[in-house]
Write a structure and sequence with these properties.
By secondary structure, the chain is mostly helical. It is built from 1 helix and no strands. The radius of gyration is 15 Å and the shape is rod-shaped. The relative contact order is 0.10.
Length: 34
């Protein structure tokens, strides 16, 4: 059970990292257009 929870948490962290990366990419793109 703990292993399942751990993998779920890792997937959640991975998703968070992906969204953060996408947001930072959008910010840099917006800055370059300004």
């Amino acid at each position: 059970m703990s292993k399942k929870k751990q993998s779920k948490r890792l997937i959640h962290i991975d998703l968070l990292n992906k969204t953060l990366n996408a947001q930072s990419e959008n910010i840099t793109m917006n800055n370059s257009t300004l």
